Amino acid sequence: MSDEFEDTVTVKFPLKLLRVCAPGQQIIEKKRVVNGITWWIQYYPCGQTENEKENISVFFHITGGPAIMTRYCGIHIDGILIQKVSTKDYEESGSWGIGKWLTHDQCRAADEKDGYVEFVFNVKFTRPKILPKKVSGSEHSSVKDSLKFEILEYQLDNNAVSEFDSTVKQAVKGSDKHSWRLFYFPAGDSSRSKDHISLFVEASTTEKKTVILHGAIKIGDITKHGRVFEKHFKMIVEADSECAFPKLISHKELRQIGGVVDEKVSITVEGTFTTYDNLELD
Where is each MATH domain found (predicted)? Predict the structure, then answer.
């Protein structure tokens, strides 16, 4: 398998959908598989939310990582392919989207044939940086922080798939270079993770040296009821990094292990951000 590979899907979009769709109405394209990675497009002709109703929202989904994915969202205007580009590193799977990719006026100005315009979605995959089993080198500094949030039991059964919330992006305690936040989906981030809690850890740094985040995801308040679930992870932190857990824990398992207390789920993510000098990855 090549270190780099790509795939493209062209969507013929009927302009009439700009008139008839309501915010939140979505179209999910067929899943595509390339070199063991599955990816697909989900888009909202009139935005995902009321605030985006004069725009087209588009989301990319990926499973089968790890992979570094570069996404190109394009449309032809006067024969020129106009694209928006972004790149993200996925450990296993994840999602990324633009709430206001294309305004309706821009869409109507695109090259049209028989009431249709073409969206061109291209993805390029690169093998990711694999975290080492051993890390050697002189430790420069280490800071610890934690983020906590709660999910109501009601949300497990009544939230829509892909409905999410997040903690506020904040600076890591003791650091003027690192920041992080959490995105969580009580009912799963997509259809593949329905009936699960999905969690995405987003971290960034302006540090030029190598930074590794060692983290632990913990469910339950140990001071009141004891810890019922714990999952460890590690990730390299760069300018824009993410670690995805689309199926962190199923609703069934969560209830079986006593993770719902007083009609809510308490989740804490503890992290240690370590900066290394002269790091060698074995």
Answer: 174-270
Segment 157-193, tens digit of pLDDT? 999 999 999 999 999 999 999 999 999 999 998 887 8
Are residues 94 and 113 in contact, defined by beta-carbon separation less than 8 angstroms? Answer: no
- pTM of whole model > 0.70? no
Where does the chain hold its CATH 2.60.210.10 domain(s)? 4-126, 135-281
User: Is-contact 157 39, C-beta < 8 A?
Assistant: no
Specify the fold of 4-126.
2.60.210
Instruction: Identify the band that residue 210 occupies on the pLDDT scale cut at 50, 70 and 90.
Output: confident
Residue with tokens 């995805």: 244
What does R_g of the chain's alpha carbons equal in angstroms? 21
Check whether the bond before 45 is cis (ω within 30° of 0). no
Residue listed under structure tokens 């590193």: 89
Scanning the structure block, which residue is given the tokens 């913990």? 218
Tokens of 233: 């992870």
Torsion, Cα 244 42 32 15, to 10 degrees, reads -160
Half-sphere exposure in the Cβ direction for 38 (13 Å, CA)? 8
